[in-house]
Amino acid sequence: MSFTGRLPIIYGYYKVNERNKENATIEAMALITALNKSLDEASEVVNIAKNSMESPCSVEKYKLNKLVVSSNWIRSVTLAHNTRLVCSSFFDDKIVPNRDMSHYIGKGLKLVYTKYLNPVRVALTYTITDGDWNIFATMKAIDIFKEIAKTDLSDKIYVAIGDDWLNSKEQILFNKHVDLSNWLSFKSSKYPFSILVDYAAIEKMGAMMWISAAVIIILLIIGLLGAFYIVFTAPYRDLKRGEINNEFIPYYQLITSLESNNWYGAEVLIRWQHPKKGLISPDSFIELAESSDIIIGITRKLMDQVAEDLRPYVHSFPKNFCLSFNVHPRHLKSGYLLDDCKRFLSKFPENKIHLSLELSERQLVDKGGLTELLQQIHEIGVTVAVDDFGTGYSNLGYLQLYNIDHLKIDRMFVSKISYMKDGPQLIDAIINLAKTMNMSIVAEGVENQDQLIYLKKLGVEYIQGFLFSKPLPINDTVNKLFKVA
Ligand code: G
Ligand code: G
Ligand code: MN
Known about the structure:
The chain has 485 residues and is of the alpha/beta class. 40% of the residues lie in helices and 23% in strands. It has helices at residues 3-6, 13-49, 57-69, 141-145, 199-244, 286-290, 294-310, 329-334, 337-346, 361-364, 370-379, 397-401, 411-415, 426-436, 449-457, 474-481; strands at residues 74-81, 84-88, 109-113, 122-130, 133-140, 157-161, 164-167, 172-173, 184-187, 194-197, 248-257, 262-274, 278-280, 321-326, 353-360, 383-389, 406-409, 440-443, 462-464. α2 crosses α5 (199-244).
């Protein structure tokens, strides 16, 4: 049965069996109609053949042959005196005269095996008796079962004639002792036969179909879940692969010190050197990375890569060159951050490098247990910056609580400078706040002279932005640092 043929099964076991029961009834009724029709023909043929009783076979044989040829179902018609062959459309009475025909002769209907209906082995005979005479017609079992044999139910349907049952495989089952209580039985109103249907077997078949449908559905669900898993976790798995293959690389955005008129340091900004998609900006992947602990591994590897990048040049760096990393709260909570910082610093000569951690403003609020960690971090000379200041919550208590060293003014405030020159600006308040709290100030996103002049006037020391440097790969960073054209 095809898959779509099986689909209705999902309506349940009960429905399946109801449907099978209905189908079995339809098949059985069709079989009764077909068998009645062929027996009508047999009855007609033997009644005509009866007229040949008195004449010699040499004359009548031709008539018998004609009867058979012009019928649909009848394969032979035979006249016997008692059980002895007298004349037949099939048997040659001259070669085997007086042959015993009792095997074929029944009371009305009979199922017989016959070697004469080659290659078919089972025939159904229909006999009428007239005095000492028996006249019978034969039909092929295959002709009767032809249609039924094509259906699902063929092996559960039988034609019962007395104690003999005919199945669709052309076998006669004798004396079948079966408890018929769970069988369907249909009796012909015209001839002495019934159609029996093994309903228990049909129920079993229904159960099997139901189970196979359930299995198909379960497999389908598993397949779908698998597909969803593959589709939805693909970006994460790609990220993991990227981490393993060291595809995350540092870019450096140099920060200028207006006091020393030299480079103060650089912010490390991650990039993904993807083997298929090329260079990817963090906007496309950092959120996913930060949604699990993978951000910790990625950041740690990034720190290692930065150390490796810069170690050859560190002797020529301005004193206390500041390297700042963006650090996620997961990393803070992980318990590894302090060690990661120590490891980073250990790769450089003492006092050559100054490590700073950028924590975004909104990540600092309500993080229990942070005070101690930040104190330990300070103790090893690492400083802490609040990133994107002014975009998060306005609770300022934590600036003091955590002893924050630097305040990075978000570029949103810097970008407004050139448009609103008159009167006090929000950025003035932020700068005043930072000064009051003894924090150094880094202005982000400085793109033009107007902004630079304004910030300088307000006493901002550190400038980060495209005006001085875009985020650059290591080679360009080194070239810019040492002013190589
Ligand atoms: O580098 P870019 O200019 O595209 O930076 C976009 C955003 O990605 C910034 O908000 C920056 O804070 C963030 N970002 C860049 N590098 C890192 C990193 O190494 N770790 C984390 N957590 N965020 C980063
Ligand atoms: O971690 P943080 O959100 O501060 O990252 C700085 C972001 O600002 C990076 O995406 C960096 O590329 C971007 N940036 C740095 N300088 C400028 C600038 O002058 N103009 C603009 N539009 N973006 C900048
Ligand atoms: Mn930052």
